[in-house]
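Weekly sync notes, structure subgroup
Attendees: PM, AL, DS (notes)

Item 1: joint prediction request from the bench team. They want all two components modeled as one assembly rather than separately. Inputs as received:
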Amino acid sequence: MAREEASRGDGQTAQRPSASGHAEPFDRTSVDWEAAENSPEFKELIRKKKAFVLPATIFFFAWYFGYIILSGYAPEFMAESIYEGFTLGYAIALTQFIMVWVLSVWYVRKADRDFDPLARRAAEKAIESGRRATGPGGGSEVTAR
Amino acid sequence: MNVFFIAADVNVEALVIFGVVLGITLLITYWASKRTHTTTEFWAAGRGITGAQNGFAIAGDYMSAASFLGIAGLIFLFGIDGFIYSVGFLVAFLVVLFLLAERMRNAGKFTIADVLSFRLNERPARAAAALGTLAVAGFYLIAQMVGAGVLINALVGLGFELSVLITGVFMLSYVIFGGMLATTWVQIVKAVLLMTATIVLSFFVLERVGFNPVDLFNEAVAQSDDGEAFLQPGLFLTSPIDTVSLGIALVLGTAGLPHILMRFFTVPDAKAARQSVVWAVALIGAFYIMTTFLGFGARAFLGTAGEESAGEGGNLAAPLLAEEIGGGAGTIGGDAFLAIISAVAFATILAVVAGLVISASGAVAHDVWSNIVRKGRESDREEVVAARIAAGTIGGIAILVAIVGGEGLNVSYMVGLAFAVAASANFPALVLALTWRRLNTTGAVSGVLLGTISSIGLVVVGPDFGVLDDPLFELSNPGIISIPLGFLGCIVGSLLSKGEGKAARNFDELYVRSETGLGAEVGSAEGGLRPRGKESAAAVSTFVQI
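Output from the run, pasted for the record:
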């Protein structure tokens, strides 16, 4: 990857806003990635994300495989009519659609409101740590401060 | 006289509508070709596609003829079992949204291999990922090409070979001249056409039963030889464990489909990537619910008598239903409806095969040629040339295989196999590369190999392939065995081999980058990443000014 970047893309130093709101070009070697990963900001982002994604994933897998397993092993149950020939199996299948719509909209709203600001802060923190390490005066400036 | 016979066989209305659709796609391609010069433009449409546009394009890329005609046909023939496919195909997008959409956009560039090689040894990791991509795209592509030939032959009256050739030539012109931009807009147009046609057809089906779906189900049951069992699972998916295996492959496979994952590189950022999933599930979900109206409608109105003309797998059930709804065979309305649905089915196939070819050309030109053979020495312009040659070659091979194999080529297992390989080879390696620090090159390569070989192998010795009279493996769907094997290959391979400093070190960067977007590829310029170890004073000073 690094090699391939070396052969192209040079000279394009236009300042462009990126996903995380910082300006390009971006020097990946200037960031202490291990420190960035261990920063409280990044840890909070991961914790918040996990707190939503993990239970949501467990739920949708359980609900989905519940439907699949019932379809495979309990066909009579799934064929039971709940309203004049409208079957339970069809109803459960429809709940899968609703589940997908609700969870995806919910996730996107959470990401817009909670995850994105946290990600931005974690990215800023990472850039800052890089600046301290490689900026003018290097690390000594940091200790002097 | 002979000429008249041929003319009588060819559905002229369908041909005219085909022509209009093809004309529109060629205009799109011409427009896109003027905007396709760099690799980012060729493979990622300059990363300028909006979230909503990408959502439509994903829907257009995803809903193949197997979805439109296949599921409607399956429901027509076997009742509710067909709907299980619909549910699996849709729920799969939650896996994509929660695990991969944003991370792929942040971490990758053009291909799945970009993400793996970010932290692993470049050449083996790229080779393995390219293999997974080509296996999935190859099976999918051949199934679609043969399907296109059979369908156009049946619906329009053109010969099988000619139909395959037309499909192939148009598919290739989109990709070669218009790259991802043309492919994207062909997919968007297709999604709009398909949704409109399905809504109209569903409306007329429901109108016939007084907008009471329950009456539709009851009428379908009344028209079925299976009676009440028509609404009970098990007519098509007769083995419960096979159903579960299918369910696993459906829900995890989408997250390993290269042509779907590639779409996330076309948007400007992670936010647009996740928005595109919401648009996609809105469209795809609505569509799949309507497939039940088409399938049950076909059963209710075509009845047992329609089974023979609907062909193998009931693929022609939806077009025949359109003819019936329009007033029946031979009437003006019936002919017009049949022609429109045929043209929509054709557009459906074109959009999917174009997406498959561009993702396969990424694996060949970007991964194998530029980064393995040429070791990244290639210029941007050279890589675009290589991409066009690769697309032409892949498309040419697919056309050839479809024509030589002919209509008799058994493609029924191929889409299922594509999903199984995607779930068993691509998905484990990708997810673990993004989340598991210990993964190393040996692990990723052995996982991809084991996943690919086991899913293909189990299908070959299974009941559908047709080589063994007495199948060694009883399930049609290998997922329940091959997906755990794919994960196991990655994990055991990593644990048994030496830890790689690079893999663990770069994991920190990949992890932070995939979660925050820091350092992600931007816009149409390739300035998102600076070369490692090349700390020019200018770069550092610009950076400090921020």
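Discussion: Helices of chain A lie at 2-7, 33-38, 40-73, 75-78, 88-134, 138-144.
Action: AL to compare against the crosslinking data before next sync.
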